[in-house]
Amino acid sequence: MIRAYKFLMRPTVSQQAALVEMLRDHCSLYNGALQERRDAYRHASKTSIKYGQQSAQLKDIRAFDPDCQGRWSFSSQQATLRRLDKAFAAFFRRIKSGDTPGYPRFRGVNWFDTVDFPKDGDGCRWDSTPHEPVTRVRFQGVGHVKVNQHRSVAGKVRTVSVKREGKRWYVILTAEHNDPEPLPATGSVVGIDMGIANFLADSEGKFVPNPRHGRNAASKLEAAQRALARFPRVRRDKRTANHQRAVQRVTDLHRKVRRQRLDHAHKTALDLVREHDFIAHEDLKIRNMIKTPAARPNPDQPGSFLSNGARAKAGLNRSITDAGWGVFLTILHAKAESAGRDVIAVDPRNTSRRCPQCGHTAMENRPTQEKFHCTECGHQAHADTVGALNVLRAGLVRREAQTA
């Protein structure tokens, strides 16, 4: 089983400068490899360059530029080239599926914030000074950096990554270890229905309120972004002290909202995993749910458009994004796997319109957002609770079909 760990680093001033240079040089390598692919396709009869060809050039690149590219880990530079190769693979996959292609773009220094090391011990070393009371991680060209390790790492460390978030630096580890012991069985099963008015409702009639972290911080974010907009757009090294403080203010607010959302998702998922052996949830296609509605041209007046509800849809999209359903479901699946619990996603269609008593399905069964009133048998309940009950039943049927 693979588990990820994220720890805050405490680099010195010189180490922080070296980390910035490492990101800059890897960004330069990424952009150079992208430019080579573009030029080869445009000017060499649509020739495609692959990762293997660019990786074979690394030795010559490092020898030509020993002060920049030559001082960093060879394997981390290979990982940067693989990152570009994955971007092109995703680009061609989107073309084949008919989605918006999204050709890989050049990265600015401020957009390139991660360097990966594919193997612990190759250009990096986790816990490089194990006999000292302070944990350190060593990076080639940087040195031994202090780490604020707030919990132990279980298993053998496989990969190490450096990530910059604002003015903070983090080390991200992936460790492989044997499957942990499952939690004791509770004999309980539950279905959950994700929502906006309530974060989720379960089949037992319980509700988890939606904290709305993004909405609560919206006024502060708006003021901080308005203050940042007063400054002209210049390079990072040309910014004034006031400009840097404005940038940092926006970054800190976004980080706080993100951490609040993660904390709520972890706690909610942990409660579900501890209390239930089986959890069923809706298989939500969140990316499709938050798409902007297509424009509606006015046939009577060429060049003008009819109302398509874009403003109301934008508010709904913000609420869905603020709820963080995708993050929560990812965390739920990971915790359930560690605890030996079963989690199944089911088709969400008509789950809030089907009566749990008689099975009658109709749009009229849900007259309001919260109320469910079956037009066939008269059953009344909260619409989200009805949805959770139907999700649970569909999940149990699917589990039985899988074990059969």
Please characterize this protein's 3D structure.
- It is a single chain.
- The chain is α+β, with helices and mostly antiparallel strands and 404 residues long.
- It folds into two domains: 2-176, no CATH class; 189-403, no CATH class.
- It contains eleven helices and 16 strands.
- The protein has a seven-stranded antiparallel sheet with strand order 2-6-7-1-5-4-3.
- The protein is globular.
Task: Fill in the keyword field for this structure.
2 domains; 5-stranded mixed β-sheet; globular; alpha+beta; 16 strands; 43% helix; 404 residues
Q: Strands, helices and their partners?
A:
Layout: E1 2-10, H1 13-43, H2 51-56, H3 58-64, H4 74-97, E2 114-117, E3 124-126, E4 136-139, E5 143-148, E6 156-165, E7 168-176, E8 189-194, E9 198-202, E10 207-209, H5 213-216, H6 218-229, H7 241-275, E11 278-282, H8 286-289, E12 296-297, E13 305-306, H9 310-323, H10 325-339, E14 342-346, E15 371-373, E16 380-382, H11 383-403
Parallel strand pairs: 8-11, 11-14
Antiparallel strand pairs: 1-5, 1-7, 2-6, 3-4, 4-5, 6-7, 8-9, 9-10, 12-13, 15-16
Helix pairs in contact: 1-4, 6-7, 7-10
Terminal residue distance: 26 Å
Q: Tell me the Rg in angstroms.
A: 26 Å
Order of helices and strands, N to C? EHHHHEEEEEEEEEHHHEHEEHHEEEH
Q: Quote the average pLDDT.
A: 92
Low-confidence runs of at least 5 consecutive residues: none
Number of DSSP helices? 11
The largest beta-sheet arranges its strands as: 2-6-7-1-5-4-3
Domain module tally: 2
Largest sheet: 7 strands, antiparallel
What is the number of E strands? Answer: 16
Tell me the strand percentage band: 15-25%
